[in-house]
Specification:
Strand content: under 5%
Number of domains: 1
Distance between the termini: 44 Å
CATH architecture: Orthogonal Bundle
């Protein structure tokens, strides 16, 4: 099933994203499709979510904040770091500009940066694809996460590795950490820690 006119979306992304962000979006769409196939999920939906996941990334922070405050319900902790504003706004644009109504796609776009507790496998695939696409992500980072996918509970193991890296990076850069990030990390750790 074709959810979008891919060529139109790609043209829109070329005009509205910088070159690196456009390359990243193409990489995430390809990686999301591969991961969806690996985990028996809808590959076309994954491609669509991957392609659109950063559609709001290059909007100015004040515009993102205005859209969030006037059109969306967001948690307080989502407002502490402007680097995550594009996620809820991206879901909003996917719906209003591109006519996406599939809640699975919209939710995956919505949560691809912060994540949430009890993510679906589809949401995990988009989240992880965003971190390991090979066009713009550092190979050493990919090499930490990608092997986890072949383990038992591979999506969760890769997700846990993503959150470890994210938390370390935020601490190293003296950036605030959304409490839900800590909650997700703790939940995954508790679920899989050895007894």
């Amino acid at each position: 099933m074709d959810y979008i006119n891919k060529s139109e979306v790609i043209e829109w992304l070329k005009k509205n994203l910088n070159k690196e962000r456009f390359e990243h979006s193409i990489g995430v769409s390809e990686t999301a499709k591969e991961l969806a196939e690996m985990f028996n999920l809808d590959t076309e939906k994954a491609y669509t979510a991957g392609l659109l996941h950063d559609c709001a990334k290059c909007l100015p922070n004040d515009e993102l904040l205005t859209i969030m405050k006037t059109n969306l319900e967001v948690e307080d902790c989502e407002l502490i770091n402007p680097k995550t504003f594009h996620s809820p706004v991206g879901a909003y644009l996917a719906k209003t500009i591109f006519g996406i109504t599939d809640e699975e796609i919209l939710s995956a776009i919505r949560w691809h940066t912060l994540g949430k507790l009890n993510m679906t496998d589809f949401e995990k695939v988009i989240f992880i694809a965003d971190k390991i696409e090979p066009r713009t992500r550092p190979q050493e980072y990919i090499d930490k996460i990608k092997p986890k996918l072949s383990l038992k509970n591979g999506l969760d193991m890769a997700l846990l590795e993503c959150f470890k890296g994210t938390i370390k990076s935020l601490v190293d850069r003296n950036l605030k950490i959304c409490t839900s990030t800590i909650d997700i990390y703790n939940d995954l750790l508790k679920k899989y820690e050895k007894n």
